[in-house]
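Our preliminary data section would be incomplete without showing what the modeling component actually yields. Below, a chain of 317 amino acids is followed by its predicted structure, encoded as tokens that our downstream tools consume directly.
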Amino acid sequence: MGGDGIQERSEGWRVGVALAVVYLVWGSTFLAIRFAVRTLPPLLMAGTRYSVAGGVLYGFLRLKGARPPSRSQWLGALVVGALMIGLGNGLLTWSELVLPSGTAALLVAAMPLWMVLLDWLVFGGRRPRLPVAVGIVAGFAGVALLLGPSRGSGGGHAALLGGIAILVGTLGWAYGSLWSRGAAMADPPLLGTASHMLAGGLTLVTAGLLLGEGHGLSLRAASTRSLLSFAYLVVMGSLVTYTTYMWLLRHAQASLVSTYAYVNPVVAVFLGWLLAGEAVTARTLVAAAVIVGAVAVIVTFRRPPRPRAAGARGRLD
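Predicted structure:
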């Protein structure tokens, strides 16, 4: 009994530390992105970030004996990587040229709204229960409040465009996440994550080059803060926290792990105010409370997805 108690306390301590890493690091990546794009091109920066992180993780797992993904698994990774990283993270990174990091984080926090709607309307999932439906309406009301014309944080049409870009990106991320449930994915899950990173990173690099971000690019023109932020995003934001998150999924209840969805934006708003001098108005605080509260309701009351027949699943092969 004594040994079991010590083991349980040790496991609980490790879960607590892992949650703190996910909360703090993923919450801080929004500010790191904003610092990075001040002197680095957004799509090339994000694409290089995920290409490097994915390459390192993929190489490590292959050295540990993981089998390479099959052709169908690589095709699945390409679709998921293009939607979740290419579209989702690419538009987020671009938007932080014109949006405060805290605002960006709050808009990203609304992604569970898309998850519930797409699962029901597109992927044949269960109809949302009343509390979830109320959460969806409240969440979109919070988004409208945050992006309204008298928002108070400035930016005008550019900020509105940045906000719309994030919403489109979260829609892509949600669709890719749901589609991946029925796609051929590499095993173990971390190898699938690495292949998604590689595919999404290469998609972003290609997009950046096609849009001319490589013309006249010089790392000498990049600030030390931008370069350090990029390194932080690669090492902490991608490698350390993704592996920590995967560990949590195996060692903690899903309901506990999912709390990062409404803790991260709070961390992001605080760090943006503390380290970048971002304005936190009364309107921002009200919108934050509405969005985070709505997400908490959705995460708490949402039914788990029901199994679907193979024919109803999205497949590429």
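The longest helix spans residues 2-36. The chain is about 75% helix and 0% strand. Preliminary results of this kind motivate Aim 1 of the renewal.
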